[in-house]
Design goal:
Number of helices: 2
Strand order of the largest sheet: 1-2-3
Number of strands: 3
Largest sheet: 3 strands, antiparallel
Number of domains: 1
Length: 84
């Protein structure tokens, strides 16, 4: 059985065609990269690809947290200066 993903409305659905031609869903993911990582693993790939994808996601989250922190600090500065 060969797994692949399709874009299904608002997510990427991983699955495979059954012997009777029916679609068998394995899982759903919000991003193409996550779906591709799952397909890679299900088709016999190693976990290194999955691990690398997770590392990229963590890096993206950390970057966004840094941006949010910067934005909150700027808002606090503006609010503080408006009180003076």
């Amino acid at each position: 059985m060969m797994y692949y993903y399709i874009y299904n409305h608002d997510c990427f659905t991983v699955g495979a065609d059954g012997s009777d031609g029916s679609w068998n869903t394995d899982s759903n993911y919000p991003t193409r990269d996550q779906a591709a990582a799952r397909v890679h693993y299900l088709n016999g790939g190693d976990d290194i690809y999955v691990f690398g994808n997770i590392c990229n996601q963590v890096t993206n989250i950390a970057t966004n947290i840094g941006r949010l922190d910067w934005t909150c600090r700027r808002i606090a500065e503006v609010l503080e200066s408006s009180r003076e």
